[in-house]
Amino acid sequence: MRHEDGSAGDADYGRIGHTYSAYRQPDPRIAAMIAEALGPAGTVLNVGAGAGSYEPADRHVTAVEPSASMRAQRPPKLAPAIDATAERLPFADDSFDAAMASFTIHQWTDLAAGLREMRRVTRGPVAILTCDPREVEAFWLSDYAPKVLATEARRYPSFDKVAAGLGTPITRIAVPIPFDCRDGFNEAYYGRPEKLLEPAARLSCSAWSFITPEEADAAVARLAADLESGAWDARYGALRREPTYRGSLYLLVSSGKA
């Protein structure tokens, strides 16, 4: 099923994605890890490309993104994205030196089909930025919005499923999250909880769209109250002094076809 703006997954970016690019900027430290995983590839396919985060500037990148709202937010310096889904990539076998996907596989309608397609059209490495569903709910946000993180944990596929879909072994690389991370996913605010009081920041994390407005308001009210009283800092204030956070974020890398 595709939403009105073309969004092909379980999140409707025509409804929640209009300010996405303002909060979900590529973080250069995470971008460097992705670039290294892509190796010397000259041609790169970006699947579920969104507004173009993490597309390397020094390669020839072909982007695929089904949501018109997200395609419209791509900066002028990037090539327009092709309207297509991961499950049906309009390319011949072995068309690209490498492929990438960031914060997208949990939204695909058919994960196995999308991963098979990525592997089919790619000669070399496939790099996937995603989260480990077993670790998502360890984040402090569970104290305030447990349904948000439960939703995320349910949506993210296990790493074994990713490896099975690609049909090749994968290397699992833990990604340190910088304190001043420019990419505003939930864990990016580990030491800056005030950011999650901003409605647009929350909507830039699609899992917030799966709870009711009343549940979101209640979660935000609890967080705001604990920040004002000092209760949050009493429990988690040490995170404000941590330069990086070891959360649920990983880079999964398949080096090439067997």
Automatic annotation (TrEMBL):
Listed SUPFAM superfamilies: S-adenosyl-L-methionine-dependent methyltransferases
Q: Gene3D superfamilies attached here?
A: Vaccinia Virus protein VP39
Q: InterPro entries annotated for this entry?
A: Methyltransf_11, SAM-dependent_MTases_sf
Query: Where does the signal peptide begin and end?
Result: none
Q: What domain of life does the UniProt record list for this protein's source?
A: Bacteria
Q: Where is the Methyltransferase type domain?
A: 45-123
Q: Name one GO molecular function term.
A: S-adenosylmethionine-dependent methyltransferase activity
Annotated PANTHER family: 2-METHOXY-6-POLYPRENYL-1,4-BENZOQUINOL METHYLASE, MITOCHONDRIAL, METHYLTRANSFERASE
Q: What is this protein called?
A: Methyltransferase type 11 domain-containing protein
**Source species of the chain:** uncultured Pleomorphomonas sp
